[in-house]
TrEMBL record:
<keyword id="KW-0285">Flavoprotein</keyword>
<protein>
    <recommendedName>
        <fullName>Methylenetetrahydrofolate reductase</fullName>
    </recommendedName>
</protein>
<dbReference type="InterPro" id="IPR029041">
    <property type="entry name" value="FAD-linked_oxidoreductase-like"/>
</dbReference>
<dbReference type="Pfam" id="PF02219">
    <property type="entry name" value="MTHFR"/>
</dbReference>
<keyword id="KW-0274">FAD</keyword>
<comment type="similarity">
    <text>Belongs to the methylenetetrahydrofolate reductase family.</text>
</comment>
<dbReference type="GO" id="GO:0035999">
    <property type="term" value="P:tetrahydrofolate interconversion"/>
</dbReference>
<dbReference type="GO" id="GO:0006555">
    <property type="term" value="P:methionine metabolic process"/>
</dbReference>
<dbReference type="InterPro" id="IPR003171">
    <property type="entry name" value="Mehydrof_redctse-like"/>
</dbReference>
<comment type="pathway">
    <text>One-carbon metabolism; tetrahydrofolate interconversion.</text>
</comment>
<dbReference type="GO" id="GO:0004489">
    <property type="term" value="F:methylenetetrahydrofolate reductase [NAD(P)H] activity"/>
</dbReference>
<keyword id="KW-0560">Oxidoreductase</keyword>
Amino acid sequence: MDVDALNISIELIPRDTAHLEAELELVQTGYASINAINIPDLLRLSTRSWEGAAQAGRRFDTCIPHIRAIDFNLKQHFGLPDVLDEHGIDQVLVVTGDPPQDMTRSVYPTTSLDLIRKLKQARPAMKVYGAIDPYRDNFRAEYDYIQRKLDAGVDGFFTQPFFDLRLMEVYHELMGRQEIYWGVSPVMSERSRNYWETKNNAIFPGGFEPTLEWNTRFARSVLDYGATTGTNVYLMPIKVDLKAYLDGIFGTRAE
């Protein structure tokens, strides 16, 4: 597996600054093939995605915070570009965002299309990514949504996790020459698989196994696919030992 020419991003959750710093150090010192960091914006955490991305920027050149569209009222002063500038952020991933469960936090009817368009108007040089969810709807509906994001000015895409290369190949044909990061996330239990199937309508292949071996083997196959097709890979190590997962993908680190 030749990953030298690949762009490989990893999602790290900013639980707190110390935890994030430890994971950043682990990735930086042990897995040189990973050259980008994604930081999600989770309501249960006090650290916002751009704050985590600014912290990651001290170690990595490419740091991409997730921006939740529903958090921003575009009818009022749009201060987000200034916030991103203050934190040295020049790339973002725009997602719609899930409403808070208790609704104590204000949300707005802003769509990802609205926010993509607004950001590109305010900061034309900023690289703005959109999300692809292969399980959201049928192929035609998702393809049309992708086209609307391109019309809004999006520069590339990150996908929800794939678990089957055959489905990934279909989406690659749909995407043409667009920049894309293929999402890969370990599913380590039948309970987790059931969650993905029932909540997100995910599709698993017949030979799927909720084991570290199966998940790291699949991740390596996606890296091979990325190297062959000139596409990128987005690792989302959810509910798994980070070192064990990365060692399984890239090989045990030299101590």
